[in-house]
Design brief:
This protein is about 55% helix and about 10% strand. It is an alpha+beta fold. Strands 3-2-1-4 form a 4-stranded mixed β-sheet. The two termini are about 30 Å apart.
């Protein structure tokens, strides 16, 4: 993986520099390496405060046109942390790394794990060299590795490892609050859904309408209390 790491470090650095050069008037707050399933390829993604707001405004106009003004800030915070909602993506600069993956990867779960660990090392190396800024500048940046359908714990684990405590704490508070709100309305939403479906055959038993339990014990305390 050392050869792949070298390719990715160079490519991710160039991608970040290209994003900034192409959008000099925008305020960047996020960078991600997005790994496709089983480590088959990797893309670089980024977002800015300006594009974040525009994306949410477009989303609300299309899907929630009657939402109150305060809904804008709520959805901005939802979109902020998920690279799938970000505006800027670069695959071209990662071509050499992705060719290496095509030639050396076996598209297994173990391969995905190895490539994921390599990407984490790449992001840490770039952060350590100061690519994403230092001090107050770095405290405004969110760095992550996105990999398929990550669990809430996996998202928070990456946020904690790759970011300053203040960035992780903001992400942690939002994610935990979102999970609690989802749990609070889960049964009501399930009952509304079941009301639209044909009756369930008695031999299958009742639907389970209780929300799934997720163990978030590793992230329930504020960042400063986890040290």
């Amino acid at each position: 993986m050392d050869e792949l790491k070298g390719y990715l470090v160079t490519a991710a650095r160039l991608a970040w520099q290209a994003f900034r050069a192409e959008h000099p008037s925008e305020t960047f707050y996020a960078f991600s390496l997005d790994m496709y399933p089983l480590g088959s390829s990797v893309a670089a993604k980024a977002n800015t405060e300006e594009r974040l707001k525009k994306s949410v405004e477009d989303y609300l106009k299309r899907w929630q046109p009657t939402s109150p003004p305060e809904r804008l800030e709520e959805v901005i915070e939802d979109f902020r942390w998920h690279s799938g909602d970000w505006s800027y993506c670069n695959l071209a600069l990662l071509e050499t790394a992705n060719k290496w993956l095509q030639n050396h990867g076996d598209h297994s779960a173990e391969n995905g794990r190895r490539v994921g660990n390599c990407c984490m090392d790449v992001l840490r190396a770039l952060d350590n060299e100061g690519l994403f800024g230092k001090g107050k500048e770095r405290a405004k940046m969110y760095i992550t590795l996105s990999w398929g359908d990550l669990s809430l714990n996996e998202i928070l684990d990456r946020a904690k490892v790759l970011n300053p405590p203040a960035v992780y704490e903001r992400c942690r508070r939002h994610m935990i609050a979102g999970y609690e709100a989802w749990r609070a309305t889960y049964k009501e939403r399930m009952l509304a859904l079941l009301a639209t479906l044909p009756p369930r055959p008695p031999e299958l038993g009742p639907f389970d309408i209780e929300p799934p339990e997720i163990d978030l014990s590793a992230h329930l305390r504020p960042a400063q209390e986890q040290e």
